[in-house]
């Protein structure tokens, strides 16, 4: 049981195995779990229209440009638990789209602080969106402050795109059903022994990065996120074992 069912960092065993998808979440997205042999998994959601294949890399959703470097229209006092920011043009916001994600103060007053988002109001583009926070504002914000909002890295994942992706966040251990009709929740592996598809001949001991083919990995060039280490010489389109080092 301990090899298929992660033990949660907060204590206790998950009620979902590493080879099971559900449509009603049993944990918060981003919850960390570890099997008794040391493999690490993060609780993940996909809303993609494609099946996520076993042994292929998945990546987190990119930060939307219209949701980055945003102005704060009204000053926010220390101790506040919500912040309004003005969205850029062309991108509206559905209710609670960023639940479990983060608000980062990226410039001027309050810069360098990160706050977890507990929910958000539905908002049209180019208008002020209110984000509710799990934590209190630690340093007051002014109308000169600038903020960026992003989803949890394990929310709304898709197959890793070809080339150097912005953040590869794990490897499914089974074929995860398409989530476009109903979101699918599953455990994605981030650390330890896992099969993962090679896109070319790969030397034993090579440090790996996302490959030139979607979902695959290749030898790292030192300029992209390390995915893990090749444990046996790899062959293109085959799934030789790796030691994942995405997130411990």
Q: What can you tell me about this protein's structure?
A:
- By secondary structure, the chain is mainly β.
- It is built from no helices and 17 strands.
- The strands form 2 sheets. Strands 1, 2, 3, 4, 11, 12, 13, 14, 15, 16 and 17 form an 11-stranded antiparallel β-sheet that branches. Strands 5-10-7-8-9-6 form a 6-stranded antiparallel β-sheet, with no helix packed on it.
- A hairpin with a 6-residue loop joins strand 14 and strand 15.
- It is globular, with a radius of gyration of 19 Å.
- The mean pLDDT is 96.
Short description:
The protein is mainly β and 248 residues long. The protein is built from no helices and 17 strands.
List the helices and strands and how they pair.
Layout: E1 7-8, E2 32-34, E3 40-46, E4 58-59, E5 70-71, E6 82-86, E7 102-107, E8 114-120, E9 128-133, E10 146-150, E11 158-159, E12 168-172, E13 184-195, E14 207-210, E15 217-219, E16 228-230, E17 241-245
Antiparallel strand pairs: 1-2, 2-3, 3-13, 4-11, 4-12, 5-10, 6-9, 7-8, 7-10, 8-9, 12-13, 13-17, 14-15, 14-16, 16-17
